[in-house]
Design goal:
This protein is an alpha/beta fold. It has twelve helices and seven strands. The protein has one domain (3-277): Vaccinia Virus protein VP39 (Rossmann fold). The protein has helices at residues 3-7, 20-26, 28-39, 54-67, 71-74, 94-101, 113-126, 162-172, 189-197, 214-220, 243-257, 262-265; strands at residues 84-88, 105-110, 131-134, 147-153, 173-184, 226-232, 271-277. The chain has a seven-stranded mixed β-sheet, sandwiched between helices. The N and C termini lie far apart (37 Å).
């Protein structure tokens, strides 16, 4: 049995915690979310290599960290060596791989079985260890105080009951541990631009997509002892769109926006990054 497969058999179980399949069977919205993300691999449209190959995962990594150039500057992927880190909504494991390379002892969970299958392939291709489980992030199957770090980048806005997920993030975090999360900013340049240009955002058709103000996000994170929210992600050229709107965005809007002094527009960042302590 491979190390990756073996990890599937050491999943800690919290008594009476429903597994992802059961949760989805009794909650139609969770079922719809699971099926949507099974069918919509994030950033699949930009991949040039066959799904599940090393080239495919390299394509996803390159695109993600080109689009999210800010992320390695605000999340120290090498800063958690030896710590037990949980990613909720790990998808194909793109961010989780970086934490693992940095020496963290990583666990990834996702509601969608397809995501976990891809994450398993990603880790196996790179010879890295991880515990990877199909699991409902609103009812985590881990004991209290299990992790040093909980990471949920771009997940809370897509789940059925974000308040339940935030409480679970807090519950499984050790006292003094750190939670890092991101949601979309409702009062942002990208939300406004999408309305003006009548261009749908990525995954606008997802069963749940909730955008937050800074105040609303702080309220969601109220279980934590402290929380600090920093707006991030400002315009970079898009590879996903074609035609005159894409040309206007890439050639005119992006350069013009980035000439504006950042302090004037910093509250309007599309991503709200949260850094929390228990």
């Amino acid at each position: 049995m491979s190390e990756i497969a073996a990890a599937q058999h050491i999943k800690p179980k919290r008594p009476h915690a429903p597994d992802a399949s059961h949760a989805a069977s009794v909650d139609p919205l969770l079922a719809a979310i699971r099926e949507y993300w099974n069918a919509h691999i994030h950033d699949l449209a930009v991949a040039k290599h066959p799904v599940g190959t090393k080239g495919f995962f390299d394509d996803l990594d390159e695109y993600r960290f080109d689009k999210l150039r800010y992320l390695p500057q605000v999340v120290d992927f090498n800063g958690f060596r030896g710590q037990r880190l949980l990613e909720i909504g790990c998808g194909a494991g793109i961010d989780l791989i970086r934490f693992a390379k940095g020496g963290a002892r990583v666990t990834g969970v996702d509601l969608a079985p397809q995501s976990i299958q891809l994450a398993q392939k990603n880790f196996a291709l790179r010879g890295l260890r991880a515990e990877l489980h199909v699991m409902n992030g609103e009812a985590l199957e881990f004991d209290d105080d299990s992790f040093d770090v909980v990471y949920a980048h771009g997940v809370l806005q897509y789940t059925a009951h974000a308040d339940m997920m935030a409480k679970e993030m807090h519950r499984v975090l050790k006292p003094g541990g750190q939670a890092i999360a991101m949601v979309y900013n409702r009062i942002s340049w990208l939300h406004a631009l999408s309305l003006v240009m009548k261009v749908e955002l990525e995954h606008e058709d997802a069963p749940v997509l909730k955008k937050y103000s800074i105040g609303e996000f702080k309220k969601l994170l109220s279980p934590f002892f402290t929380s600090r929210i920093v707006p991030e992600r400002f315009p970079v050229a898009s590879r996903l769109h074609q035609g005159w709107k894409a040309l206007a965005y890439n050639r005119i809007f992006v350069p013009a926006f980035n000439l504006i002094p950042r302090p004037l527009v910093s509250p309007l960042g599309w991503h709200l990054m949260a850094y929390c302590r228990k």
